[in-house]
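go over whats below:
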Amino acid sequence: MHLLDLLKDLQPGVLTSLDHIEVLAYNGYKTEIPVRDVLKHDLLLASARNGVPLTVRDKGPFFILYPFSADDSLNVASVYSKCAWQIKEIRLIPTKR
């Protein structure tokens, strides 16, 4: 599933009020993904590999990744660090006014 599609389905217009998405993993990892990245790149929210649901042992239940093979400019440590697996929670962080 594409992360952008999920966010649009949750609440129409929600993206215009967001600054970033905070992602928390079962292993304690936390990362922030700017909404501009969600809009610009085709980020994936994976829950299965080859039709088989991801388990925590297989980096599930959810895994967010950037389209590294589609855009070489994404192949840098600063983008790799925004990816997350074993996701337990996604928080929508509004723009500060």
In short: The two ends are 31 Å apart (CA to CA). Strands lie at 18-25, 30-34, 44-46, 48-49, 52-53, 63-65, 84-85, 87-94. Residues 3-10 form the longest helix (8 residues). The mean pLDDT is 93.
